[in-house]
Amino acid sequence: MSRSQDPHKTFLPFGNPFRMMKAKGSNLSPKLLDLLNTFEETLSARLNKLKPANKKDVLSFSWMKAAIESLCGIHADIKVLITALELPVCDWDDKWIDVYLDNSVKLLDICIAFTSEISRLKQGRLFLQCALHSLTGASSNKFVSARSSLDGWRKHVGSKNPKLENCFSVMESLARTLDLPKIKNSSKGKVLMRAMYGVKAVTLFVCSAFAAALSGSAKSLSDVQVSETYLWGETFADLQTFVNTEIRNSTNGSFAVLKEIEDVVTGVEKLYPVVRDCVGVGPVGDEELMKCTLDLEKSTEKFADGLNLLGKEVDGFFQVVLTGRDALLCNLRVGGDVFDQMRTNHRLDGQAVR
């Protein structure tokens, strides 16, 4: 796991992409304005629930799980809005479709990177289980085996995951597309693009925080500037500042970011010298050995449970994105020529969907 202390790096700030909308709801019918308000109020409520009472809870599997659950809900909300707008895909501007398909591929790639890192951490857990199993055995070489397993964990947790490292550039690319196409003659299109901006901004924020927590580096954090003309803008800015500040403070000289990983690392560092001193001479200080072993066993169990739950949420989000993409492509098939054109630009056997 990378622990490099990279210089503070942020994505380019993005303002309100709908500058032509001088006031929210300008030129919108009461029905469209109500749909937009409902979406933005729901988004604000979801963001508000993500701010924990204790800042240290940000860097935990439980917060990350809640953040991904919120993303799934937000992506479901945009589907509800699209249905309510009664704006058939055949009426979508080609630019909207192009942006949506391109962004969905990026999100799938990011999900794959997260899944890869979660799988890698699960592999590291095997070293811990082997060490604990060795210490409960009666073999004369149990301390040698335990020390070897602990060495394996230390090496594994300190290594880098290329897929996770590569997803940082994917998120930068995603950030550059936040400024969506301008809408001139379609009120429904304006509502749709405005809502999609909210989905993209929150998705980018959560994914960047997720990557920073998993990598142990704040270099992937985004600082998206959102206009207060959105009903969710102030809540978003408050949450983003809260979360990013805590992550940056915690990565300053820290070996691990996530609390569950930090607890395991601490347990290993306490147990390792005790096991090392026992090699060749037998147990010295049985009470200390038992205490350190029990502490590591407890932290390893919490670590494993958190990983499993988080992995399921990431898989769920992957399916949400993939389902939405497939639904759009199915609707495009009805358009015949339109689908053929989009299929040329966005191959289904691309880097994420293969």
Automatic annotation (TrEMBL):
Q: What GO cellular component is one of the record's annotations?
A: membrane
Superkingdom of origin organism: Eukaryota
Fetch the Pfam families from UniProt. BPS1
> What is the official name of this protein in its record?
Uncharacterized protein
